[in-house]
Amino acid sequence: ARQRVDLLVGPAAQVATPVGGDGRPPAGPAQGRLSLIPGGAVAVRGGRIVDVGPYAEVAARVEPAATLDARGRTVLPGFVDPHTHLCFAGWRAEEFGRRLAGATYQEILAAGGGILDTVRHTRAASEVKLAGLVRERLLEVLRFGTTTVEVKSGYGLTTADELKMLRAIRRAADPGDDLDGTWPCEGLVLPEVVPTFLGAHAVPAEFRGDPDAYVDRVVHEMLPAVAREGLAEYVDVFCEAGVFDLDQTRRVVRAAQALGLRARLHADELAPLGGAGLAAELGAASADHLLRIRDEDIPRLRAAGTVATLLPGTALFLGEPFAPARKLIAAGVPVALASDYNPGTQPSGNMALVMAIACLGMGLTPAEALVASTLGAAHALERADRIGSIEPGKQADLVILGAPSYEHLAYRLGTARVAAVLKAGKIAP
Ligand code: NIG
Ligand code: FE
Do 368 and 423 meet the contact criterion of CB atoms below 8 Å apart? Predict the structure, then answer.
């Protein structure tokens, strides 16, 4: 008897997906390994993928309640964006102009602008106002094909404002929350959100010159409050010259781990401080940015199983050198890609554009970029058992691209049309 399914997607010009294999993050040669099914189809039932293969074979095995024709289109796993700061109030367009005129990101931050400018606007916004901004951006990235997205706090920098940010993120991600009557929930489809506490994102003006006192506040007041309310899955620290050093970062992460949070780090973005080595030492799920990773830390990442999450849009936007992606892949370190979506260093959450920049700037192949944005990124968020590839048993998170092959993602510089997105089997309106 044929299996009843909710939806049959296909026939498609191509179904393109990484394959989970041994459950370890794709690395080395596997970093660029895709399963390509010309004329493929995907069957969905109860929000999960139940069958994948050539259309004629899948169609003969299932009895679909509905079908979604994908002729001329490519079916891909939903994109996973494992590093964003999309909870913020206030854009920084004028800072863009100042940087183009020669001011550096660090100079602007040291003068009380940059992140601290966003902190002022975010502190002034109410929880529900912020939640509305987050929800708009979640829907924006879903339209770009992102079905799972990590979102950090870090623009509050007081206990109350960090909690406000994390509560806003939680509310925004809950499709049943109408945000105090401001948002119709009818038919709302949202990406899954992974919340990260980034209280150690910058030293706020009140603690200027005394970062250790601020770290004390993060460790003794913020972290316990975040853990008590269960508001974050991960802790992150902006481990950077002039921001938080290795010892301060270690203190925050150890305290968070004692409370049950997992770690991910901003590492070696602007200065070669050794953040990647620290991420490995601390067993972090991911070390992010790595524009200036030290050579000796590369094997440490590999040995620790820490994913290297690269954000090439940020390197481009800051006019900094790209991370040594080819070196990392050659060394067998699993690589993920992320947008960094934030008002200062990457005001876009378009993962296809990130893939394009990864290919053009770091020499990834289009296949490596796709793997890094799906299964690799799912590993960076420790969810690869559920998401990141089109395989039976996984959540039905799918992108239907209005182009005949996966290469169009990178090739078209982020402009290939996303014709439809499925989140856990639900078609986003
Ligand atoms: O990943 N590096 C620190 N945080 C962000 C930038 C945040 C901001 O400038 O607002 C980043 O680049
Ligand atoms: Fe970041």
Answer: no
DSSP 269: S
Structural domains in the chain?
Answer: 3-77+388-427 (2.30.40.10), 79-380 (3.20.20.140)
Angle at alpha carbon of residue 49, lines to 407 and 10, rounded to 5°: 55
State ipTM: 0.94
Structure tokens at 98: 């100042």
Q: Is the CB of 340 under 6 A from ligand 1?
A: yes
Closest residue by Cα to residue 151 from 342, 395, 345, 387: 342
Strand residues in 238-283 grouped as ranges (E): 262-267
pLDDT of residue 22: 86
Q: What is the pLDDT of residue 270?
A: 94
From 122, 197, 201, 318, mutation site for ligand 1 pocket: most ligand atoms within 8 A of C-beta:
201
Q: At which residue do the structure tokens 């876009």 appear?
A: 348
Q: How many helices (H) and strands (E) does the chain have?
A: 17, 16
C-alpha of residue 402 to centroid of ligand 1, in Å: 32
Burial of residue 129 (number of CB atoms within 10 Å: 0-12, 13-18, 19+): middle
Residues sharing a CB contact under 8 Å with residue 57, sequence separation 6 or more, in sequence order: none
Rounded to whole angstroms, what are the CA distances from 42 to 239, 390, 399? 42, 8, 12
pTM, whole model, 2 decimals?
A: 0.98
b/e map 206-235, b = 16+ CB within 10 Å:
ebeeebeebbebbbeebbebbbeeebbbbb
Binding site annotation covers 266? yes
Residue 345 marked as a ligand binder = yes
Phi–psi pair at 192, nearest 5 degrees: -75, 140
For residue 95, give the amino acid letter.
E
| Run means of pLDDT, 10 residues per run, the chain, 429 residues | 96 96 93 98 98 98 98 98 98 96 93 94 98 98 98 98 98 97 95 98 95 98 98 98 96 98 97 98 98 98 98 97 98 98 98 98 98 98 98 98 98 97 97
